[in-house]
Amino acid sequence: MRKEAGKRITIIQGHPDPKEAHFCHALAWAYDEGARAAGHEVRTIDVSQLEFSLIQNKREFERGAVPADIRKAQADILWANHLVICYPLWLGTLPALLKGFFEQTFRYGFAIENSPRPKKLLKGRSARVIVTMGMPAAVYRYYFRAHGLKSLESGILSLSGIGPIRASLVGMVEQRRPAYRAQWIDAVRKLGTLAK
Questions:
Q1: Which of 82, 111, 132, 150: disulfide with 160, CB 3.0–4.6 Å?
Q2: In a domain, 132, yes or no
Q3: Sheet containing strand 126-132, strands side by side
Q4: Within 10 A of 109 (CB to CB), how many other CB atoms are there?
């Protein structure tokens, strides 16, 4: 029986703080470690280290120059057949820097075709979204209906053809004991091994 080839995985580390490691970083590193141990290839995009401006109008989104760091990120996304997006929940959704990254990166011509019947240009890729938060994950999912996550899933990823999309919601990260974090790191490392 032929061994299945490893996946090509691009991890998008979406924590906006470039100065210190956070739990998001630990989770992304665990996924990376598990994936590499299982023979998958991994690249990482650390959004906090990129240089790009925010898009301010429709003209920029449709025809503006693409910054060099964004072109490199686009190449890493095109190379991958599985994406991992890790970020902290801020005000119910993605941090502004990560949202700005997606606006710059998932432009017409890269993510979707600008035509009367838009074509999804990123088909053939799956995604895992890992979101850390201070509230209980069940409260975010069922009371707030995970609105920020759904916006990312349907308004950016699915719209571009990415699927299936799976999510891991990690709640109460600031109030739990170290054992809780260790359990999540182990769980995410296993997801990396499986490339899911």
A1: 111
A2: yes
A3: 41-46, 8-13, 82-88, 126-132, 165-170
A4: 12
Band the pLDDT of 47: cuts 50, 70, 90: very high
Tokens of 19: 């100065």
Cβ contacts of 112-118, under 8 Å, gap ≥ 24: 112/159, 112/160, 114/62
Classify the C-alpha dihedral 61-149-92-30 as positive or negative: negative
Q: Which residues contact 158 (CB under 8 A, 6 or more apart)?
A: 165
Query: What span, in angstroms and rounded, lies between the C-alpha atoms of 16 and 186?
Result: 24
Domain assignment of residue 141, yes or no: yes
The predicted model scores a pTM of 0.94
Place of tokens 């801020």: 90
Residue with tokens 């719209």: 159
- What domain range includes position 39? 8-194
CATH classification of the domain holding 16: 3.40.50.360
Residue 3 lies in a domain: no
The 10 Å Cβ neighbour count of residue 21 is: 11
Is 2 part of any domain? no
pLDDT, one tens digit per residue, over 82-118 is: 999 999 999 999 999 999 999 999 999 999 998 888 8
Count how many domains the chain has: 1
d(CA 3, CA 52): 41
